[in-house]
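Retro notes - structure team

What went well: the batch runner handled both jobs without manual restarts.
What didn't: labels got mixed up in the shared folder, which is why I'm recording both outputs here explicitly, each with its sequence directly above its tokens.

Job 1
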Amino acid sequence: MRPLAVIGNVNVDLIVGPVAPWPKAGTETVVDHDELRVGGQAGNTGLAWQALGVDFAIAANVGDDQFGRWLREAFGWRAEKWPVRPEGTTLSVGMTHPDGERTFLTTRGHLPRFSLGDVLSVLDGSALSGGYALLSGSFLTDDLTREYDAFFDWADGHGIAVALDTGWPIDGWTEANCAATRAWLSRCALALFNEVETVTLAGAQSPVEAAREIRSSMRKGATFVVKRGPQGAIAIGPDGTLVEAAAPGVRVVDTIGAGDVFNAAFLAALAREEPLSACLRAATQIASRAISTLPRNYGGPMQSRESTHERA
């Protein structure tokens, strides 16, 4: 199995809900559910890998408070080298809604001060050679984002294929954010975006058309994956082949972090050198299980999946 790593945002999530309608100012709303848990794109991916029995490395930083210590404890020895910042740990309050949507209120906290130096203090480039590194939370990790070119140079120098999932920009897909994302993607071997992000970034209505258009400016042999929620997922593979996977019908309980779980399962299957169709199928099945269970369940250690139908 090829080595795996995730780099980016690990923070605290406080999930409450469901909330409907949006509360009026000055009022109090009683909700049925609350959960304090490890969050952030990188954090969610790491937790999924742990549950799936997959070996991995994770590079992150934390704030200098009880939340920071708690986050480090969640990842044990993998977090021993995480830098501790003097800022408070980033906290994200997620309010769920009956229709499955959610609203986040997030503090800046420690995440903007996550740097390339922090990454290199944690990861062993030689140990990751020939593997995959998922870069996540791009619009939250300001210091690292400014050094992305140097990060890509480091990854190239160690033969590490970079996968990118930027997450949604805080100020939306502005012209500057689109340009920056396309520049990052030009150096990536793999993109893992949701459907809204994909069509918005490409300025196209069709997710297939949008994926093909964006992939055309990526590295030769790159793969572009589009996460489509209840509609499953599609991917444009290294040879330009379109691959699709349907998602099983489930009763949705909590969609927070669903895309990150998908990323984890997809990359785990890819690291096993399974066909692209099997990677998509594993990712959709495991993400569907995760969003339909409370407490969250990933199905135990990951096994090889059968390939699904591929077509041009």
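Job 2
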Amino acid sequence: MASAAAALPRTPPVALPAPLRRASRLFPLLAVIALLATPPLGGEGSVTAADGASGLLVVWALVRVLRSGARPLTRTAAVVMGLPVAGICVAAMGAADPGTAVAGLGRYLQIFVLVPLAVVLLLRDRDDFRLAAAAVVALALVEGGVGVHQYLTATGASYMGEDIRAVGTFGAVDIMGMSTVVSCGLLCSVGLALDPAPEAGRGRRRAALCCAALLLVPLALSFSRGAWIATAVAACALLLLSGVRRALAVTAVAAALTVVVAGGTGAGTQLLQERLDSITQVADAPDQSVTDRYTMWAAAGLMWRQTPLTGVGLKGFPAHRDANSSLALSSGSDTAGAGAAFKRQPLLSPHNMYLLVLSEQGLLGVVTLVGGWAALLTAGLRGLRGLRLARRGGRGVDCALIANGLLIWQLVDFCYGDIGGPSTLVTALVLGLAAWCAIGGREAVRP
């Protein structure tokens, strides 16, 4: 019996299809993207499920590196990714409140160092990158769908006395969350639609273009001027990087689709037109929100002049705000709607990431943190140029376009906003995808 059993052929293990194997390997990254749509676990201001998943992502990437025994990064990549640690740690040591500084240190390291580095280490090839980009598009479609429903049923955040502002699942407190996700999804869709590789296929390009057209509606209904400006700048840059002729053709089609979609869905209402007109009135007749930003920008500049090298310390802006602000600053912004009661939200940051870094971390923070972003953008643009000059059939150009488009969007959006809220992890994902294409998208080198 034993010899007969031994003679039987062994059944080979069932192999999973390649897409499922890829998804299982990237599960921690996909989980972070999916869980961005969930609310905070313990109420407003607490950690989210996406934060917990980001911790799992970092540990997963670390275990992979230890098991492989490979050198995961080049020296240049290690310097660029690790340089912000110096400015962040120095600013934390100079903070007046140690408890707040420690919390801020952990958040800054999570967003600007650990999660981006984990993304760089986890992605192996361009197909991994495309899967992550497709997951961002899927999240944007879900959030955008919720936002459009909020607008049509008047269940969104309060805007001009009506609960019509599309905020998705992020709520009235994080009103920029949905617009951030939708903008990133739109740029990923445009990048995938511009893929010149023959293997991309017309079907995938058309599907990506349809997704981009659909995402224009929730982006408009978010009433977010900063997201509109950043998306327009990044989309134009992305189109120009793909080719001037194609940029002109796609711009004409996008303009026509915008007019049709806006008119057909009622998005071209008087409120939307007034919001668009207000962009040109930020200097002549600014509203209270713009006045508050101007006042806080001036306050950030005064803080930096007091301690130009290291700033006032991590998370020190709220404590020094009133002493450096004029009487034009209001006590806070009103938030209501989307299932939340009316609340006066305090103004705890200048709503400008560059001025926030300058005021709290000084010139040291600007050189290490902002300098790292500039290095990523420079390397990304050089890499895209190299792909185009190499005449490699267009392989990888879509990934480079998406990475550069997302990074340009983030750097422009930082002129009108900063980190904070459940959607902050989107910034970490953007930096990670951009870093992979700029300095990390190459095979690991054995020591």
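One thing worth noting from job 2: The chain is about 65% helix and 5% strand.
We'll revisit the folder naming next retro.
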